[in-house]
Request: fold
Amino acid sequence: MSVDLSKDFLEQLEIDLAQRQFTAYEELLHEGHPADLAEIMERLDFDLALVLYEQLDDEVGAEVLMELDEEMRSKILVDYSGQEIATELIDNLDSDDAADLINELDETQRREVLENIEDQKQAMDIARLLIYPEGTAGSLMGTEMIKVKDHWKVLECVREMRKQAEEIETVHAIYVVNEANKLLGTLSLKKLLTTSTRTPISEVYSQKVEFVEVSTEAEEVANVMQKYDLVVMPVVDPIGHLVGRITIDDVIDFIRDEAKEDYNLASGLTEEVEAHDSILSITRARLPWLLIGLFGGLLAASVIGRYDTDIGAIPQLAFFIPLIAAMGGNVGVQSSAIIVQGLASQALAENTTINRLVKELGVALVNGAILSVLIVGASLFLGYGMPLALTVSVSLFAVIVVAALIGTFVPLVLDKYKIDPALATGPFITTLNDILGLFLYFQIGRLILGI
Amino acid sequence: MSVDLSKDFLEQLEIDLAQRQFTAYEELLHEGHPADLAEIMERLDFDLALVLYEQLDDEVGAEVLMELDEEMRSKILVDYSGQEIATELIDNLDSDDAADLINELDETQRREVLENIEDQKQAMDIARLLIYPEGTAGSLMGTEMIKVKDHWKVLECVREMRKQAEEIETVHAIYVVNEANKLLGTLSLKKLLTTSTRTPISEVYSQKVEFVEVSTEAEEVANVMQKYDLVVMPVVDPIGHLVGRITIDDVIDFIRDEAKEDYNLASGLTEEVEAHDSILSITRARLPWLLIGLFGGLLAASVIGRYDTDIGAIPQLAFFIPLIAAMGGNVGVQSSAIIVQGLASQALAENTTINRLVKELGVALVNGAILSVLIVGASLFLGYGMPLALTVSVSLFAVIVVAALIGTFVPLVLDKYKIDPALATGPFITTLNDILGLFLYFQIGRLILGI
Reply:
């Protein structure tokens, strides 16, 4: 079922491709799934991948191209003229994929492609899709779908569906529109199968239909489709005309990418990396956060430096530096993570910033109280003496409260200014909390220890 | 389109429910989407939610129940007898939901329910689904699907589909099996619509079909469905008999839950929390990681304690404690995160542990070299003097290498022992790296500074 990606297979394939020996791969080339072929191509040397690609039929080739990562796709497209892209690729793609492909081209190539699409309706459909800004329902939708008119009879409907189905790969839903193309509802396959052919569509279609507008944000689209378990959802223009449909596979990709991005930010990676990427590109993804960490560390050093005489007098003060720094960081990230998830699922919609901060303060006070009591006990038990135990305990409490408030406030502010709130879970907040925490610690130390 | 969840609406609803005034909510109660009704119920006082729930028709009620979170569902089910669950709920659910519901009951209730399901075939289907362990394809699948035999003609097929469709809500795919119920392929709706009614199915069905076995892990199911953009996928037993189908909505829930779990672990939350949960349950999710952090901080304090005379002699040594600790933690989490993602997408399948460690070592050496050079420069510039600059630089290099190796090794080992590798991104690794890093730092300090 799954395709062979073993080292042996790939090595043999490279040898055969280099010698232009394709006989052993007839089945793979003509029956293989585009996703499998793309996966194989990505594992090969680029030149040999190109040899493989050139053996594919136009239709399969176009789909394989869309499954490749963007970098490889653009390397392949360099050798294409606008005319070739239009006739060999665009013609074999669904409108949403076609629009995505064209969006990746440069200005000149783009115009050349659009001018060379023969089917005028297709060219118009694609041109229209290119208008929608990235991240909106319009940019995710395709125009291939089955539409029937409400005044038709079931028989007419089947006949029309048959005609439309010729051009559509999979039929997910049948949309019912009026003469002006306003979306009225859906007709289930079940109803179509179980109704007499003379029944008018208007009597059997369902008016319950979830839809989004072209300008709806992708995140909202994902939430609606997930909530209602939809496989496909119609998209309408601002006055209710049916203009496209979004299929769940595009939404899944979106959901996965978003989750990955948040996860990467939380774990200190600035770009998407995969374990089999090169050492250089993994380094590139990791270095920026580490540089911020380094800078933060130097700042922390200068904060501590202001208290060097205190440390000289009571070296034990230094023992708890990691504890204070780590706890500030942890609490801040926790707070931010809850906000980031809440913003993504729009569960925070009814909450004001003040509400959130008050609640977070509550959580921080509870956590802070528990941990402060524990640390006093532990410090005394370990023989650090009451003054130091008290210093650590009081500053821990203060750090937890401050870190929680910052961790809550920053992602909310970022979100307000349309910046990805997940940035807050990265090293900025942690570093900020580290430094603030140390400052609080030493100041409280001065007060309590009377240095 | 979306349902009204405003404070005003909910407050009015609570008042009306308390007075058993339902007239204003006829449409919501009878036409509302189960997902919306569930969302509303979750926002109400439990007693009033129950009043609302009791107004629902059995069929809608059963679906609403499955949309609620598990805690609320079990509170509602307490008042049900096994017989009621069987006739009012199970009868109105798809087999996969029915099995999930039964799985949540205790032993006695479970038996009572199974004995009271009237439809013998349904009872058998569900009993069979209960066997599959959680996290396998078998546990995700439902048994409702349209099957046709390969020796039928298209006409027969449509007639049979019509019969089967009566019992199925949405038709996603038509599966072709032989007389012995072995999965042979799929019949596309398009083919069905565009072929003469006298054509035998065997001539028009497609043998290309992606499927999984009942024992396939959910993660693999999710990967296959995503890779091939499938909306529904058939499930076969070990000898190829068609036993069920998995729909994409169940897989999306799985994907989302997994992503959330990883994200929570990486940000120090032990259980799923939402921003609108109570202060107590948010605290419960956050305290465990903070306690580990606290414990780690105390350990770090005792490590530093071993070097108190060194700090007494050179207080500046303490300045760089946060830098060393933070960098160790950051590098470790980055390394682990890459492994965790690689394991999830199975991109690491061909890689041995040794390969991974060697590559990670490469990345660490590059990062370490760059950052060490930078820190020497920065430290000298800031006037810390060569011996200290050298100490910080050498130990930073050592910490980065050690943290990277630990961050790579631990998730791989966890995975080998079937423990969630994402645990490695939590505070364990960070704490371990903090402590090891500090130990390295002070030891190297002794060597270089000659204390």
